[in-house]
Design goal:
The chain is globular and about 45 Å long. By secondary structure, the chain is mostly beta strands. Strands 2, 4, 5, 6, 9, 10 and 11 form a seven-stranded mixed beta sheet that branches. A four-stranded antiparallel beta sheet has the order 1-3-8-7, with no helix packed on it. Strand 4 and strand 5 form a beta hairpin. Helix content is 0%, strand content 54%. The chain contains no helices and eleven strands. The mean pLDDT is 94. The termini are far apart.
Length: 121
């Protein structure tokens, strides 16, 4: 399984970016995909996720500004629309895929390489 992120870049405060994460190499009946971010000197933190059933979850810190969605045709690509960006949103944004299973020993997760988002003030 491979995850390929794209869409990062440099943007001024108040601007928008849309990140994409394309998954290849696997087909899963039950999974969750999402975004995490890590700023220099800080812990990696959850940003947003979407499940195989389409349920979404967005961190309180970005709720109302960020939205996660999925390519419903292929279901192997997710997007993160980021609006009203702030300098504190500057981070390396990682895509994550988690294969879910009732038996935890069959659960597995994969990470992308990350895409840099830099918001200038």
């Amino acid at each position: 399984v491979k995850l390929l992120e794209s869409g990062g870049g440099l943007v001024q405060a108040g601007g928008s970016l849309k990140l994409s994460c394309a998954q290849s190499g696997g087909t899963f009946s039950s999974y969750a995909m999402g975004w995490f971010r890590q700023a220099p000197g800080k812990e990696r933190e959850f940003v947003a996720s979407i499940s195989s059933s389409g349920r979404t979850d967005v961190a309180w810190s970005v709720r109302g500004r960020f939205a996660i969605s999925r390519d419903n045709a292929a279901k192997n690509t997710i997007f993160l629309q980021m609006n009203s960006l702030k300098p504190e949103d500057t981070a390396l944004y990682y895509c994550k895929l988690k294969r879910e299973a009732l038996n935890p020993k069959y659960e597995r997760e994969w990470w992308g390489q990350g895409t840099q988002v830099t918001v200038s003030s």
